[in-house]
Amino acid sequence: MPNYAYFQMWEPQRKSLIWTHTFYYEQGKKRLLAQFDDIGGEANAETEKWMVEQSRVADPDGDFSDVYEDANDHNSEVYYLLQEMRDSTRLSLLAGMFHEWEKQVRNWLVTESRHWHSGDEVKSSIWKVQFEPLMDLFNSMGWDIKAAAFYPKLEACRLVVNVYKHGSGQSFDDLVRKYSQYVRGAFENGAFQQVQAELRRQQLAAGAKQEEVTKLNQEGAHLVAELAHTKQSLYEQLTNGRKLEQKIEQLQTLLRNAENIERQLASKIAKVELLGEQLNTVRAESATALARSRELELELAQANAKAEVQEQIGDQFRAYLDKIATRPAAAKSQS
Q: How far apart are CA 94 and CA 159, in angstroms?
C-alpha cells in the first residue's frame, strides 16, 4: 500500500491553535482567577463588616465572647465559600478550554477527511465517537498517541472535567485509579465520603440549574413565538395602513377632480343662465318686432287699399277726362 497522509496539520495552523489556547489560559487567569488572589483578606474584610452589623444589635453590657466565636465561624465560612468559588471557576475554565480543544480536533479531522471522503458517514462518526476510541484512530494509523509523554496529562484533564460535570461515576473511578494525585485530599483524614457528598450536591445544583435553564429556554421560545406573532401582526397592520393611505390618496385625487368638475359645472350653468337671459331678451325683442311688423303690415295693407282706391279713382278720372276730350273733337268734325 503506498504511503498516504490521511491527516495533516500545517505548521501555521498548529501555531495558531497553540496561540489560541495560550491566550485562553492567560486571559482566564487574568480576568477570572486573579480575583481570588487574596481570599483570606476578603474573608477578614467580610467578617469585619459582619461584626459591625452584629455590634449594632448586641447588648453593650453583655458578653462579647460569643460574638467573637461566631465571627471566627463566619470568617471560616466566607473563606470556604470563596475557596469553593475559586475552585469552581478554575474547573469551569479548565472545562471550557478542554472542550474547545476537543472541538478543534474533531473539526480538523472532519476537514482533513474531506480530501479523501465526500460523504457524511465519516463526519458523523467523528462527532459521535467517544474520546478514547477517537484516540485509538491515531494508533490504528501508526501513531501511538497514548504512548506520548503528554497523553497522561491530556487524559487526566478529560477525567477531571468529566468528574466536575457529572460527579461520581466511571470517570471519577478512573481518575482515582490512574491519577490519584488530583484527588489526594479526598483520602486524607477519611474524607472520601465528604467528596462524594459534595459531588452529589454539585450534581443536584447542576440539575437545578439545568431545569432553570430549560425553563428559561421555554420561556424564551414562548417570547420568541409571541414576538414573531406580534411582528407578523405589526407587518399586516403596516401593510393595511399603506393600502389605506393609497386609498386615501386616491379618494383625495377623486375629490379634487370632483371639485374641478363642480367648478366647471357651475361655470357652465352660469353660462346657460346668461344665454337663457339673452334668449328671453331676444324673445321679448322678437315679440315687439313681430307686433310692429304686424302693425306695419296692417298699415301697408291700408296704404295699398288706399292706393288701389286712388288708382281706381285716377283711372276713372282719366277716363272721364278722355271722354270729355273726345267730345269737342267729335263736335268739330260734325260741323
A: 11
